[in-house]
Request: fold
Amino acid sequence: QVQLVESGGGLVQPGGSLRLSCEASGSILSIYTMGWYRQVAGKARELVAGITSGGRSNYTDSVKGRFTISRDNAKNRVYLQMNSLKPEDTAVYYCNVDLFSLMSPPRLSTYWGQGTQVTVSS
Reply:
């Protein structure tokens, strides 16, 4: 099995910072894309930031210039540094990983973390 463990969420004041971390473990052959999504109750889940195996990154417009995604390929980890947080950033953040697991034959699959709550409020 493959497990994604997320950490770093919490309560911060507007203008504050948080760093989210996600580590994939288990029967992994290779990881291709990694990213962070967020969702507010009653609304669709949206991509916040993604990063490819080649290091190319993409961000939703609302976080450009404030958030930075990075990955550590050797450790199967992805990070999201969030600066200048705003109340509208409040959501449950989900780690997402596209990877080949150790199956016969190996196949590309998508895995999701359980979500970590980020609340921006004074």
About this structure: The chain has no helices and eleven strands. The CA atoms of residues 9 and 118 lie 5 Å apart. The chain has a mean pLDDT of 95.
